[in-house]
Write a structure and sequence with these properties.
The protein is α+β, with helices and mostly antiparallel strands. The protein has one domain: Lactate dehydrogenase/glycoside hydrolase, family 4, C-terminal (L-2-Hydroxyisocaproate Dehydrogenase, Chain A, domain 2). The chain is 42% helix and 27% strand. Strands 1-2-3 form a three-stranded antiparallel β-sheet. A hairpin with a 2-residue loop joins strand 2 and strand 3. It is globular and about 35 Å long.
């Protein structure tokens, strides 16, 4: 059902906000090409924009910590390409 919902949003160009994985480099201070699920506006072109939420300092730090953890796991893969 989730896939059908996302496909409908893209095919019908609804600009629906949905949590999908996208590159978050630059979002809340993330420095690497890390892909995380964040609320995004979906259009016929895919992710139209990321919905930037107002986070406090603790929430930003937690987001950055998660992104760093993902980067540490995936960076060896990028390095081998």
């Amino acid at each position: 059902m989730s896939t059908a919902y996302l496909a409908k949003a893209v095919l019908r160009d609804t600009r629906t906000i949905a949590p999908v994985s996208t590159c978050v480099r630059g979002l809340y201070g993330v420095e690497h090409d890390v892909f995380l699920s964040v609320p995004c506006s979906l259009s016929s072109e895919g992710v139209q924009r990321v919905a930037v939420l107002p986070l406090n300092d603790e929430e930003k730090a937690t987001f950055q910590k998660c992104a760093k953890g993902i980067w540490e796991v995936q960076s060896p893969i990028w390095d081998s390409l």
